[in-house]
Amino acid sequence: MTDEPIIFTVFLVFTGAAVLATLALIARQSLLIAYIALGALLGPWGLGLVEHPETVAEIGNIGIIFLLFLLGLNLDPQDLLRSLRRTTIVTFASSTAFAGAGIAIGLGVGFTLVEALIIGGAMTFSSTIIGLKLLPTTVLHHQRMGRVIISVLLLQDLLAIALLLVIGGATGGENPWIQMALVLLKLPLLILVAIACAHYLLLPLIQRFDTFREYVFLLAIGWCVGLAELSFGLGLSREIGAFIAGISLASSPIAFYIAESLRAVRDFFLVLFFFSLGARFNLGMVEDAILPAVLTAGTALLIKPLVFRLLLMQTGETRARAGEIGHRLGQLSEFSLLIAALALSKGVIGELASYTLQLATILTFLVSSYLVVRRYPTPIALTDELRRD
To answer: How far apart are CA 360 and CA 281, in angstroms?
Structure first.
């Protein structure tokens, strides 16, 4: 155990996940809940068997990168652009409403104005990983609902990056507004670089060596993580870079093979990601943070589906589709966890506000994923009628 800590950790995560997943299926619960609960059980504030969940989290984040890469591989860029134009107003209007609700809650429970502003900002985002992981592949890639959800999440990612830049500049350093302007200039540059490299380098290599499956597999992974790192280096998120990497290969006839090859790899890392969510939370703060966290989470779970439904219906969506999209986007985000941690490390907010936001985010993950799995088609649905991939 001492000589092989990584192997021991992987053993704990996946053996424990297999046991808890079995119990979850018997109890007709979401598998995502089992992974998060296992993290809390084995993490530093549980049994302490996994002492460094940050390492697991770093590895698990690869799952989100692959998730966005596979998403881009199966999307028509023209359809995505049309969806982005239609959902811009929805995204910004809903973000304003959610931020206002979060600020009101923060002030209402006694946090400072700055802490309330941070909570309001973190309330605006929905989870990319929950929203996309629980969509059937056919809906995700080929139907309007998938395009709408993707476009909203991408716009929210840009807003999250802007908020992170503001928090990062709150204690000095470069002007965050200048950084945001530079980010807006770097995004088109990244897209042009990706298109050029894919057209003149990647696709010719794939066409020449497509009979060597291992080579295509390695080339796809290298392209995905390479563009993700380039995006991060430019001040964007790795997820946006991975998505652009996928889009750049979407027209290739081998895109389907790449997507199928990487699906199992993606799921492996996503188990680690959800485990790390539960393992990183300080259970010792639950008693102090539980009431404001429940209030924050409950408000998000109530108003997000409603606001999204009303706004989407104004753009011409049917009531049923708008309602389902609202529920699929009715939680807080991975960015909410990152914002809470960054703001605490910068001294912008106190421990109680940070852990309130973290606990609220995890609670929305649990409740939202459970509701979606129970009500709508998902790859991990509890009934045969709703299970689709």
So the answer is: 11
CA distance 162 to 179: 9
Amino acid letter at 350? G
Reported as half-sphere exposure (CB side, CA atoms, 13 A), residue 85 has a value of: 5
CA-closest candidate to residue 166, choices 177, 182, 154:
177
Alpha-carbon gap, residue 74 to 154, rounded angstroms: 16
> Going by C-beta distance under 8 Å and a sequence separation of 6 or more, which residues neighbour residue 203?
249, 252
The pLDDT, as a whole number, for residue 3 is 45
Q: What is the mean pLDDT of residues 40-67?
A: 83
The beta strand positions in the chain, using DSSP E, are none
pLDDT of residue 1: 43
User: Could you tell me the sign of the dihedral formed by the alpha carbons of 314, 378, 331, 250, in that order?
Assistant: negative
Any idea of the CA torsion for 168, 294, 282, 14, to the nearest 10 degrees? -100
* pLDDT digit string, tens, across residues 334-358: 888 888 888 887 788 998 999 899 8
Give the CA distances from residue 181 to residues 112, 152, 175, 184, in Å, rounded to whole numbers and listed in that order. Answer: 29, 21, 10, 5
Rounded CA-CA distance 376/330 in Å is 13
168 by DSSP, 3-state: which?
helix
- Specify which of 18-32, 71-85, 288-302 reaches the highest per-range mean pLDDT: 288-302
